[in-house]
Amino acid sequence: MNTAVAKALAKFGLLVAMIVIATGAPAKAQTLEYPLNANIPFNFTVGNEKLTAGKYSLRRAQPSAGDMIVQITGGEHSIITRSTVPVETFRPREKSVLIFHRYGDEYFLVQVWPAGATTGRELIKSRSEREAQRKAHDNVGMAAMKAPQPETVTIVAN
Question: Is the pTM of this model over 0.85?
Answer without folding.
Answer: no
